[in-house]
Design goal:
It is a single chain. About 75% of the residues lie in helices and about 0% in strands. The model has no long low-confidence stretch (mean pLDDT about 85). The protein starts with 6 loop residues before the first helix and ends with a helix. It has four helices and no strands.
Length: about 110
């Protein structure tokens, strides 16, 4: 019969996976980040089944801090991506407005 893995060992793995996911997000490797986040879910499920959570409290506090950092990083990265898309769209629209064409640009037509 297989003995359940101790909560401390699972918590350490959870911390490592969380920090790795943050690193992947920071480098824009969303595929790896997604895989690591799925692994986190598996580890959390295993951790929920543990009876010895008290032995892992300090590590779980570190995990919680790393999760907050990861969440902040994801939010910031998402905001920057959306901002970049909006800027790119505005640039394309401005370029279209100023572009000379056979019928003239928007400003030529309006003026």
């Amino acid at each position: 019969m297989q003995h359940p893995e101790p909560a401390e060992r699972i918590a350490q793995s959870l911390l490592a996976v969380t920090l790795s996911a943050a690193s992947a997000v920071e480098f824009g490797d969303w595929e790896t980040a997604g895989q690591l986040l799925r692994r986190r879910e598996q580890l959390l499920t295993q951790l929920e089944a543990c009876d010895d959570l008290d032995s892992a409290l300090s590590t779980l506090e570190a995990v919680q801090s790393a999760e907050k950092d990861l969440e902040t990083l994801i939010e910031r990265t998402t905001f920057e991506a959306v901002e970049g898309m909006q800027s790119s769209r505005a640039f394309r629209e401005a370029r279209r407005a100023y572009r000379p064409s056979s019928s003239g640009g928007v400003f030529d037509q309006a003026g």
